[in-house]
């Protein structure tokens, strides 16, 4: 088996190289290497030739053409059948549509009739119920009238003697014209008595309300007076407390006034003493001038200077005395 390189361009059958200008070089290269050494499968068995493959393909092509013609004829026949079926289906659809419209209109008419019938039945039921209620009310009214009639008959029979008495009274008396006039006057008197009793009850209720109001006003006034008494007692207590505080502060102020007056007197005495001392020093030093009592700062400065001078003199005198004593003791 010769070594060949893999073909890059093939013909229609797939096993021929279409590069003849490179075929010799490829063949020489393939003989010098083992990379592309390929053993085809069943290389020792006789395979199908190109002619046999061609014949098989032609047979398959003819069979496919026959099958195509048969399928085309069948398709045409099916098309005719389908078109006839479609026409029949359209006819049936039109029939069903018309039938549906008829049935739908019939059902609509039936529903309208049913709705109208239900409405009429409901109205008739309500009317029947109202008539039944009216009949019951009429029956009850008839029963009441029958009972009233029986009671009226009994009342007439009961008061028949009184009618005779009224007739006799009208005949005897000159005040009444007829029994009806007597009855009207009695009714008027009864109504007047009823009005008088109502007025009496009204006045009694007004009197009761006025009494309650007076009691309420009295209670309010008593509460007001009690509150005022409480306020007065509070004010009295506060007045007493304030009075005690005033007396206490009066004592404190009296003590303060005494202390202030004593301090003022001490101040005046001190100023007088300073002034007198200043005058004495001025006389001693023969300093002219009128000393002013209010210029105590200057006076104190002068007194301080004089005191310092006198203290210095005393120190000198004491020093001299001590020296003389020491000298006397030494001589002795």
**Uncertain residue segments:** 10-15
The residue fraction in helices comes out at over 70%
| N-to-C span | 177 Å
Average of the residue pLDDT scores = 81
Protein name: DUF4200 domain-containing protein
Organism: Drosophila ananassae (Fruit fly)
InterPro entries: CFAP_domain-containing, DUF4200
Keywords: Coiled coil
Word description of this protein:
The chain has helices spanning 20-31, 50-172, 179-285, 296-331. The protein is mainly α and 332 residues long. The protein has a domain at 1-40. The radius of gyration is 79 Å and the shape is flat.
List keywords for this structure.
DUF4200 domain-containing protein; flat; 332 residues; CFAP_domain-containing; DUF4200; coiled coil; mainly alpha
Compact summary:
Helix content is 84%, strand content 0%.
